[in-house]
Amino acid sequence: MHGNAPLTPQGRLRLCQRIEAGWTVAAAAESMNISRQCAHKWWSRYRREGIDGLGDRSSRPHSCPHQTPPRVERRIVALRQARRLGPARLAGIVAVPASTVHRVLVRHGVNRLRWLDRPTGRVIRRIETTRPGELVHIDVKKLARVPPGGGHKMLGRSTAIRPRGGGYTHVHTAIDAYSRLAYSQFAGVENTPNCVAFLERAVAWFAAHGITVERILTDIQGGWRVQGPRVVRPAA
User: Fold this and answer.
1) Which of 93, 158, 177, 219 could pair covalently with 135 via S-S, beta carbons 3.0-4.6 A apart?
2) Exposure string over 180-200, b if 16+ CB within 10 A, otherwise e
3) Residue 183: what pLDDT?
C-alpha cells in the first residue's frame, strides 16, 4: 500500500459498508476524512467487483509510448558485450541519451564490466539453480551482546569502568538459492551438535513450505567438519 494512502483495505471496506447501510457518499467520506471523489472511486469498485475491488493496484501504466524499443535495447546490450563501451559512448552510437543507455544496461544486468566474462561478454553467474531446494546456503552471523549500562561508546574503553562483555549471539541462517526463501534462528555457537540440530530444523521448515533440500553449501568451519551426504563444502 502506498505510504500516503488515506485508507487501508479495511478502511475502504468500512467506507463502502456505511454507504451500503444508507449513508450518503459525502457523509461517509467526511467520516473517513477523505474527499468525496475518493469515496466515489472505492464505492464504484466495490459495486463492480465486491471486496476484491478494494485491494491495491499497480500504478504501472498499461502502455508507455516513449519506452525504448526492444530492438534498440538488444543493440545496446550487444554493443556493451562486444565492445565494453560505457553509456556515454554507446549513446552516440545508438542515438539515445546516455541516461537511457544506463537504465537499459542496469535492466539487463550488464552495467558492471566486472560482471561480464571477458572473452564472451556474457553475464557471469557464479551459482545457477533450476529449482527450489537444489542448493541451500548456510551461514552464521555473530552479534556482540551489549552489557548492562552500555558499551564502550557510552562508558569508554577503560577496563576499570567498563562492565564485562556479554559474549556473542549466533544467528544461523539457511537460504534457498533459487527462491531466496530464508530460515534464521538463534542456534548457539558453531559446534557440530548445534549445526546439525539447526540443519534438521531448517530441512523440516523448508519441507513444510514444499521445498526438499538436496544440497547444502557453507563456509563455516568447525561445526560442519563432520559432513553428511548432503553437505557440500566450497572449493578451496
Assistant:
1) 177
2) ebebeeebbebeeebbeebbe
3) 94
